[in-house]
Amino acid sequence: MLGMFLPNEHVKSIFDIKANALKERGIKGIITDLDNTLVEWDRPFATPELQEWFQSMVDANITVTIVSNNNKDRVEAFAAPINVPFIFNARKPMTIAFKRALQRMNLKAEDVVVIGDQLLTDILGGNRIGLHTILVVPVTQTDGFITKFNRRIERSILKKLKQKGMIQWEE
Which residues of the chain fall below pLDDT 70? Predict the structure, then answer.
């Protein structure tokens, strides 16, 4: 059970994930979280650097879909200006939004990675349907109310994963 919270990879930032490296591994699609994965949870728009990252994925012919537990207004306001498809009110870690994203991208699970900052939503949800999961360090240390609660649980899970020798990175 504990292994369901274990990401396949851990990186410090979304910017450590390079299009050419994904392409070499045969990755054709990305399902990414929004808040504290791409930008701070209270930043309304993509930064210029993030816009360049998205463009690098487009240039590599890698499809990106944002899957967020946040509401339509928040996700649409972020995604529409950069022309990125999205799914809101995803109810992660339930798998329906991940499956819907795969279907919309017309890709198989083995061709897609999930990127997110939370073990309890992004990583668990992606692992539940066999997607390659990449945990990123949260963009900021502040969180919304529910996420603060999740972070406490995550710290306990991470401690257990470290004790069992399942992870080697430092927070």
Answer: 142-147, 169-171
pTM confidence score: 0.89
Cα(26)–Cα(33) distance, integer angstroms = 21
pLDDT of residue 145: 61
What is the residue whose two structure tokens read 């406490």?
Answer: 152
Contacts of 58 by beta carbon, 8 Å cutoff, 6+ apart: 64
Exposure string for 47-85, b = 16+ CB within 10 A, e = fewer: eeebeebbebbeeeebbbbbbbbbeeebbeebbeebebe
Run of H or E including 135: strand 132-136
Strand order in the sheet with 86-87: 9-11, 132-136, 112-116, 29-32, 63-67, 86-87
Structure tokens at 18: 């390079």
Q: What is the DSSP string of 67-103?
A: E-SS-HHHHHHHHGGGT--EE-S--TTSSHHHHHHHH
CA distance 98 to 41: 21
- For residue 133, the surrounding DSSP H or E stretch is strand 132-136
Task: Pick left, alpha or beta for residue 46 (phi over 0 → left; psi -120 to 50 → alpha; otherwise beta).
Answer: beta
